[in-house]
Amino acid sequence: MRPLRATKNAVKVVVVDDSNTIRKSAETILSRAGCEVITAVDGYDALAKIVAAKPDLILLDIMMPRLDGYQTLALVRSNAAFKSTPVVMLSSKDGLFDKAKARTLGSNSYLNKPFSKQELLAVHQQYAPGTP
Questions:
Q1: Per the domain annotation, does 6 fall within a domain?
Q2: What is the CATH number of the domain that holds 107?
Q3: Number of domains making up the chain
Q4: Model pTM?
Q5: What is the per-residue pLDDT across 42-60, written as a single tens digit (0 to 9) for each?
Q6: 83 to each of 12, 22, 29, how far by Cα in Å?
Q7: Is residue 2 part of a domain?
Q8: Which residues are paired to 61 by β-bridges?
Q9: How many CB atoms lie within 10 A of CB 87?
Q10: How many Å apart are CA 77 and CA 84, to the nearest integer?
């Protein structure tokens, strides 16, 4: 099945993860749901793409080289234009400390990897509803 083309008013989602598998999985699932998906390989790559795309939802891995998810989240939240943009942290770690730190820095939610199609679509519907 081919991914649907994003419509002009599609929800924009930025997926940030150093794992090609996670990026491609999220991109496939979300694009089939009608989203416009922009991917980034790390925090530095993400910052430029977030500013350019002005996404409706950001999915952000915690453990990445160069600029990790916590640092990226802090920078995103320090920009007034993105204070209310939903950010969902992605991590294979399920610890209470990681979830608390992410919340403290301003994340809206936390999704454990590997995630299922249903889990990802539930997050999408919760934080960026409105796609066909």
A1: no
A2: 3.40.50.2300
A3: 1
A4: 0.91
A5: 999 999 999 999 999 999 9
A6: 16, 25, 26
A7: no
A8: 90
A9: 25
A10: 8
The answer to whether 59 and 32 are in contact (CB under 8 A) is no
Question: How far apart (Å, rounded) are the C-alpha atoms in residues 40 and 98?
Answer: 22
pLDDT of 8 strictly over 90: no
Tens digits of residue pLDDT in 73-132: 999 999 999 999 999 999 987 778 888 999 999 999 999 999 999 999 999 999 977 644
Both tokens assigned to 95: 């610890």
Range of the domain at 118: 12-127
pLDDT value of residue 98:
86
Asked whether the beta carbons of 81 and 54 are under 8 A apart, the reply is: yes
Q: CB–CB of 14/30 below 8 Å?
A: no
Give per-residue pLDDT as tens, 13-30.
999 999 999 999 999 999
Residue 88 in domain: yes
Q: Is residue 3 included in any domain, yes or no?
A: no
What is the number of other CB atoms lying within 10 angstroms of the CB of residue 100? 11
**CA separation for the pair 4, 109 (Å, rounded):** 27
